[in-house]
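Worked example

This section walks through a single chain of length 274. The input is the sequence exactly as stored; nothing has been trimmed or padded.
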Amino acid sequence: MEEVTEKPVVYILSDSIGDTAEFVVKAVASQFNSGHIELRRVPFVEDHAQIKAVFEEAKNCNAIIVYTLVVPELRKVMVEEAEKHAVQTADILGSLMTAFSKVTHKEPHLEPGRLRQLDEAYFRRVAAVEFAVKHDDGKDPRGLMQAEVVLIGISRTSKTPLSMYLAHQGIMVANLPLVPEVDPPEELFWVPPHKIIGLIINPYQLRQIRQERLKALGLDDKADYVAVERIEQELDYARRLMKKIGCTIFEVSDKAVEEVANRIMQIIKGGEKI
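Given that input, the structure is written out below as tokens.
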């Protein structure tokens, strides 16, 4: 029989990557001088053999086995092996899942790696928001090819609010203003048409929106920018360009940002046409 080591060994078993258990172990170990332990992580545990192999090794050490396993069969093996080999174990999730079940009157999903999936969704949203800010209002046209959705339309057709709403859903969005006197960047024509959404609005509603915008900025609301004739000219140019591209055209008049965004997401996910 091998000599028992003085330095405690903490085995961390997880059906995911083991970050949760390691964080808890380090937090507890800090109360006992954490420099005097050895951590051995065993991630992605999927079968009984992996668990038994750890116990065979741990029984000859001054060991603790800490685990975050959600599959009932694997948790059962842990209990049986701990009793068989008289090894100290700590179930990080078990008692807390039981408590949650009693309070919520629901059963846990029992899906390994669920927290990591949630973390990935969070970081994707963060990346999408950063992308939307970087590629707002035509900044850095090179990003058009990287976007999952490209919104195009004349000024004040809700391109930026829509971009930010979609970004918070984890969608990479770029938007581009259309101005009759300014040719769009050539990158726009490299984007597959099904990824482009053209935004159109009633000219009189847009005139009111633009007037309010100018007032908020302390500017003259009689400028050409708010003239119906100018707005109709811009909209005509936008429609012709959108038809040339072959993209989906969406009427945003009297529609909330959430409504338009949800329809765009339906198009993205299901190839639906408006």
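What to look for: The CA atoms of residues 4 and 61 lie 5 Å apart.
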